[in-house]
């Protein structure tokens, strides 16, 4: 769990979500960070932050279904995908 203030943490995660290095991931993670991320618990934010540590190419394969997603990221990926519907 992060020791920084909640609002600062959300801003930092928003920047990391929109500046991935791969435009496809910007478009998947950026909108989630603009709104739905604010409803996440601290534990879910920890999971989201761990997801952001992953390689963009792996993330894209998991989101697109080209590769099975690891169990430790399945819940947060499902939450992001649900927010897009």
Molecular structure report:
By secondary structure, the chain is mainly alpha-helical. It has one domain: DNA polymerase, domain 1, CATH 1.10.150.250. It contains 5 helices and no strands. The chain has helices spanning 6-18, 23-34, 42-52, 56-64, 71-83. Helix 1 packs antiparallel against helix 2 and helix 3 packs across helix 5 (71-83). It is globular, with a radius of gyration of 12 Å.
Write the layout of secondary structure elements.
Layout: H1 6-18, H2 23-34, H3 42-52, H4 56-64, H5 71-83
Helix pairs in contact: 1-2, 3-5
Order of helices and strands: HHHHH
**Broad CATH class:** Mainly Alpha
For the record, the CATH architecture stands as Orthogonal Bundle
Structural class: mainly alpha
Number of strands: 0
Provide key terms for this protein.
single chain; 85 residues; mainly alpha; globular; 68% helix; DNA polymerase, domain 1; 5 helices
Summary, kept brief:
With 85 residues, this protein is mainly alpha-helical. Helix content is 68%, strand content 0%. The chain has 5 helices and no strands.
